[in-house]
Amino acid sequence: MTTALETTGLGKRYGRDWALRDCSLTVPAGRVAALVGPNGAGKTTLLHLAVGLLRPDAGTVRVLGRSPGDDPDLLSRVGFVAQDTPLYRDFTATDLITMGGRLNRSWDAELARERLGQLRIPLDRRVGKLSGGQRAQVALALALAKRPELLLLDEPVASLDPLARREFMQALMGAVAEHGSTVLLSSHLLGDLERVCDYLIVLQAARVQVLGDVDALLAEHRLLVGPRRAD
Ligand code: ATP
């Protein structure tokens, strides 16, 4: 598989307004792609179309070669971290790991426990009592426990302080290096992602404005960024 995500003329509208319009893009397999755009640009809409939470009003979306609305098994191969990590706050990380195992055949509970243990996240404390950064790590560990081929993250660091942002990006990049998943993560700030992504999609006013290899785009526009690391 050379393409993890592909959209053609994809559109979604609410009433008369298009939240996403004529969106044609690909995310090549094995890449870390940044989906960047200001508030209201259509980032969440695109990710929700990709995981089948929304149905398109125009065009098509293919994820790992399948159509998300038509393939219930597809979600077992795709990890999704939704915006603001809406976890069940009365449960502990241990509870959530156990519950995930009942819902997913390919679930690796040990991997999730190990990952959170390494970060010293209290597994038996209620998620509502954890810090925002710790909750984000729990959401990431749950998404990774599926051993996903494609990992989608919707503004995972938007509400975190700088230290928690850095720790989250380090954990994410460590996991990607270990498992080799394709990643698409959104942010309204390119600065959050520029050092870790190698592919860039810029959305603005519901349309794709920029798409391609970060190195090629930087060379084309004669731009420079800092070293590509998460620390
Ligand atoms: P943010 O960074 O603020 O999350 P975004 O880039 O993720 O923004 P979307 O949430 O996809 O953008 O929203 C795109 C557009 O669609 C916005 O104008 C938004 O107001 C509109 N929109 C999103 N969801 C709905 C909805 N359920 N009903 C009506 N309009 C919606």
Question: Which structural traits does this protein have?
Answer:
three-stranded antiparallel beta sheet, 9 strands, 27% strand, binds adenosine-5'-triphosphate, ABC transporter ATP-binding protein, transport, nucleotide-binding
Explain this structure:
By secondary structure, the protein is α/β, with parallel strands linked by helices. It is built from 6 helices and 9 strands. A 6-stranded mixed β-sheet has the order 5-6-7-3-8-9, sandwiched between helices. A hairpin with a 2-residue loop joins strand 8 and strand 9. Helix 3 (109-118) runs antiparallel to helix 4 and helix 4 packs parallel to helix 5. The mean pLDDT is 89. It binds adenosine-5'-triphosphate. Adenosine-5'-triphosphate (ATP) binds at residues 14, 19, 37, 39-45, 188.
Secondary-structure map with pairings?
Elements: E1 3-14, E2 17-28, E3 32-36, H1 43-50, E4 58-63, E5 78-81, H2 93-103, H3 109-118, H4 132-144, E6 150-153, H5 162-179, E7 182-187, E8 199-204, E9 207-213, H6 214-220
Parallel strand pairs: 3-7, 3-8, 5-6, 6-7
Antiparallel strand pairs: 1-2, 1-4, 8-9
Bound molecules: adenosine-5'-triphosphate.
Adenosine-5'-triphosphate binds at residues 14, 19, 37, 39-45, 188.
**Number of strand elements:** 9
Helix content estimate: 25-40%
Mean pLDDT score: 89
For the largest beta-sheet, the strand count, sense and barrel status come to: 6 strands, mixed
